[in-house]
Design brief:
about 30% helix, nine-stranded mixed beta sheet, 2 domains, L-amino peptidase D-ALA esterase/amidase, 15 strands, alpha+beta, homodimer, six-stranded mixed beta sheet, Ubiquitin-like (UB roll)
């Protein structure tokens, strides 16, 4: 038993963590674009990275240094430092050496980047930016703002977890991401801090497990980028750990941030939970659910608030999972429009289903009726704004 | 040696074929929506169908009847007769029985449908429509128009193939398709007629081979529908056959129709050939090329005429094929922007690449530099019109 309470403070909520965001001149008009997270003691650190074959320089650097502990994470927006070759990794070495020279307390610093692919990192600007850092600032809002790219709002959560004994630990997180978000985690960054005394050996496995049901279950546009990163830093300051409570709180933090990312999908007006049940197994359920989040025809129908269940059925059929029209049931919210071969889509049902779709958040449930596999994936609609944002992104 | 000459006449160009399109009241405003193709002698017939698990009733009917020869194909637009259960197949039986009763010369009739999924076929309207048919009409334009859904123009080709001996045969074809077009052939119908005396045993294999490089190499929105069909009817009237010449002409006809479909992609303003070379093998080249045609970020960049080569690289990296930034080369038209790890993207090159992208048709060449595999896939941009068309399709 434990209680979990939302609190303020983002990544600075756990004891001993500091963060700030400054303007280094990468974004126009003096917007914040360079952030750091600092812990007063060394953290165990685990990260999950993109499966893209062209992993960006920060990921290459992290792997090259075999980072297992750190007390400083530097994050820049506007430039992904991807497809930049050895020069990209050398730039990181230079930048982090500079940070260590300026702040003697920094150990094993790591870097993370997001933004345009294929443009050399504006190293000088970042070096200058670091010089303005005050490591003991607690400005989580500024940090969360600095890592944004096409995001329309910053994304943070924090929870205090109190065990039955009265002992407590805290978990905080921030993320960025709005488009190019794929079931395989894309163009998103997420940094999670905790003062829980997490067992270092199982930290990686726990992070991965929670990612499967959160960041790996969302899609904005089906693309997978070069920089995607979910990073967990635990400094153990609370000296408290309860495995079950920690996993619950971590998944909750990641789940809330994942939904914030979907809701902020470029130009999105709706966040939809695609719940697939009755699949041959959980993997097939995930395949079908993710296919629904990625179908352009489904996404545009969501935008048009059109309960076009035929496109839902067609997408499931095209996803390659075991299914049969005679056992399939499709339900918008609580309005069933197709049940095991029977079309229940008269004018009344259509009006009811259309009403469900007018909400900014609702679920579409597809029961394949084959076996017991289930998975819920989260997606959004695709409207004019998505095209506008992405046709003009670089310019 | 042979010569191949474009001619008029679409599906009626080969000897002994007739076609027409009428209005049966499925589309509004008296638009044509019901077409037939009739051959005065029995044809060998082969078809390739969608891989969607929820194959529509017309496909189920074709398979149930084990159709190998026919002289009559009935095609309706506006209703896909998909997800309509046994009733959907029974409706086809009733409709085709009616056609046979009206026209004694009809043998083994088949049906094909396209349009909205999940709505019962308006059988009575189609029965009435058939009554207005004149089987000996040669109105290929009317037939090609009747099978359109969101197409903005009808799609036909015909070629006369003359062998060195002076003997000749003819091939004609019509297709529909504008959106929901996937590398795995979607929401498209294509009917090909020929008077060549094609060997019935190898007709299916030839059709499949040609489809791989044509209809299976195009994408508008990555979706795969329930009705997709490519059908080849050969009545042998010319008594002439030359395997090499026939394959060449068939692939040419299918290739031209495939490009017409891409160019008519819903809201598309550009048709782009994504040429991938240097892949580990042809399959990997196809995987990468098709991923490029399906990436929303690439498609919106095409629309924005933005030579955002980072998105091209990222999509290749995400496609899972063997590749390395150090061996990759990316070229827009004849402007190389990234060459084996080196970014050649200065202002001058960017301006040149942007100029290439202003064309309505151009190529993007990605040499993976791994081995010798190659494939070219054809795609289009995604703009506001696509969203508009698909948000409002049913209403």
């Amino acid at each position: 038993m434990f209680t979990i309470t939302p609190i303020e403070g983002g990544v600075c909520a756990p004891e001993g963590f500091y963060a700030d965001g400054v303007s280094a001149g990468l974004k126009p008009e003096g917007k914040k674009d360079l952030a750091f997270i600092y812990s007063e003691t060394l953290c165990n650190i685990k990260a999950i990275f993109t499966k893209n074959r062209f992993q960006a320089a920060p990921i290459q650097h992290f792997k090259k240094e075999s980072i297992e502990s750190s007390n400083f994470v530097l994050i820049n927006a506007k430039n992904a430092n991807a497809m930049t070759g050895e020069k990209g990794v050398e730039d990181i070495d230079a930048i982090l050496s500079h940070a260590k020279a300026l702040f003697k307390e920094i150990e094993n610093p790591v870097m993370s980047s997001t933004g345009v692919i294929g443009v050399p990192l504006p190293k000088e600007k970042i070096l200058k930016g670091i010089e303005s850092f005050d490591l003991l600032k607690k400005s989580p809002d500024a940090a969360a703002e600095a890592i944004m790219t096409t995001d329309s709002y910053s994304k943070q959560v924090a929870f205090k977890v109190t065990l039955q004994s009265g002992d407590s630990f805290t978990i905080g997180a921030m993320a960025k991401g709005a488009g190019m978000i794929n079931p395989a985690m894309a163009t998103m960054l997420c940094f999670i801090t905790t003062d829980a005394a997490v067992d270092a050996d199982e930290m990686g496995a726990i992070l991965k497990e929670c990612a499967e049901r959160t960041f790996n279950a969302i899609s904005v546009d089906g693309d997978t980028s070069t920089n995607d990163t979910v990073m967990l830093l635990s400094n153990g300051k609370s000296a408290i750990y309860n495995r079950e409570a920690f996993i619950f709180a971590l998944e909750k933090a990641m789940h809330e941030l994942a939904l914030k990312i979907v809701a902020d999908g470029e130009g999105a007006t709706k966040c939809v939970a695609f719940k697939v049940t009755g699949a041959a197994n959980d993997e097939e359920a995930a395949t079908a659910a993710k296919a629904l989040t990625n179908s352009l025809l489904v996404k545009t129908a969501l935008y048009g608030e059109d309960p076009n269940w035929g496109r839902i059925a067609s997408t499931i059929g095209a996803s390659g999972v075991e299914c049969d029209p005679k056992s399939l049931t499709i339900t918008f919210g609580n309005v069933t429009v197709y049940k095991k071969g029977e079309i229940l889509f008269d004018e009344e049902q259509e009006a009811k289903a259309a009403k469900v779709m007018k909400k900014s958040s609702f679920s579409i449930h597809c029961d394949l009726g084959v076996a017991e596999g289930s998975f819920t994936a989260y997606g959004c609609d695709l409207g004019y704004e998505y095209v506008k944002i992405n046709a003009d992104y670089r310019t």
